[in-house]
Write a structure and sequence with these properties.
Fido_containing; 2 domains; ATP-binding; Fido-like_dom_sf; 57% helix; 2% strand; Fic-like fold; ATP binding
């Protein structure tokens, strides 16, 4: 049995998938070009990113709230407003990632955008449940003017008068992403962790940090990362390791998430029914990637093996295989 792929292999798989998306499929689609892709990612991200912070809405309730504005269930008002705010901010991030506003110019991110993301994310819930210690100058979009106690792992955010200086330095470091020689997932992990260590806002730093991570990914031509609630402990452990200088586990978590979203949401929709895509982009709970690989190896699924040893097929070919497979079973 093959072991867990190395971290280097995980990064390489992401690089290969993004290169394929750009060279054959035209790159990341604009939200208006592929509503279904972005809608699915939007629901998943809003649900999971708020759930990491303790939100109790299930995915079905998130979908109804974001799509129809309906509050299904009997959850606290705060939970609905947290999801609504996150959904508003995520939709803005997706649009800005592929069609930047004048705020960004040639920058990957600006201080104004950082404040705006926090403002969109936190304003709805702040109207009913503001931070109990917030001053009038510390509302949504404003940097904190309070000290933050050390986190459980021992990390202590900087004193509040230094936040603006630290954030300007963070924006400058973000600007080096395009010329960095290190693995992109680890560079993103380092910046994501650094943002959380600065902790620039009184509340909502985790949600804002994950939104900014996806803004950077989108502007670099990658789909968003979704940190699933089931991976909460793994994510927090990776953040604690990054606090101590080891960004590898967090980088791997980001790379796996982006690759999964690329295969699950983006590639199948962009490619259409006839174009060849990796088997991972065609897998379903019924037909896993491994099952498709076995079928391709046995020449039961029409597929093409590339020079890199990986199989590719199309939705049409998989549909044909599925139909003939059921016929044989009967």
């Amino acid at each position: 049995m093959a072991g867990r792929p190395s971290r280097t292999a995980v990064y390489q798989r992401l690089d290969d998938a993004v290169a394929d998306l750009r060279s054959r499929l035209g790159g990341l689609p604009k939200p208006a070009e592929a509503d279904d892709i972005w809608s699915d990612i939007w629901h998943q991200e809003a649900h999971n990113s708020t759930a990491i912070e303790g939100n109790t809405l299930v995915l079905r309730e998130v979908e109804r709230l974001l799509d129809e504005g309906q509050t299904v269930g009997a959850k606290p008002l705060r939970d609905y407003l947290e999801v609504q705010g996150y959904g508003d901010a995520a939709k803005w991030v997706y649009g800005q990632a592929v069609a930047p506003s004048d705020w960004a110019a040639d920058d990957l991110v600006t201080l104004q955008e950082i404040r705006h993301v926090h403002y969109l994310c936190m304003t709805p819930v702040w109207t009913v449940a503001p931070h109990p210690h917030a001053t009038d100058q510390e509302g949504p979009g404003a940097f904190r003017q309070h000290e933050i106690a050390a986190f459980p792992g021992g990390m202590k955010p900087p004193t509040w008068p230094e936040v603006d200086l630290h954030m300007r330095g963070w924006v400058t470091e973000v600007g080096t992403l395009r010329t960095s020689n290190g693995p992109l997932p680890e560079e993103l992990a380092r910046l994501h962790n650094q943002f959380e260590r600065i902790h620039p806002f009184l509340d909502g730093n985790g949600r804002t940090g994950r939104l900014l991570l996806n803004l950077l990914l989108g502007r670099l031509g990658y789909p968003p990362a979704i940190i699933f609630k089931r991976d909460r402990e793994r994510y927090l452990q990776a953040m604690r390791k990054a606090d101590r200088g080891d960004v590898g586990p967090l980088g791997e978590l980001i790379a796996r998430s982006v690759t999964a979203n690329l295969y699950k949401f983006v590639m199948p929709a962009v490619a259409g029914p006839a174009k060849l895509v990796p088997l991972a982009a065609l897998a379903t709970p019924e037909l896993t990637e491994n099952a498709l690989r076995v079928a391709a190896t046995r020449h039961r699924l029409k597929a093409v093996k590339g020079d890199d040893g990986h199989w590719q097929s199309s939705k049409n070919w998989v549909d044909n295989y599925r139909a003939s497979r059921h016929q044989r079973a009967k």
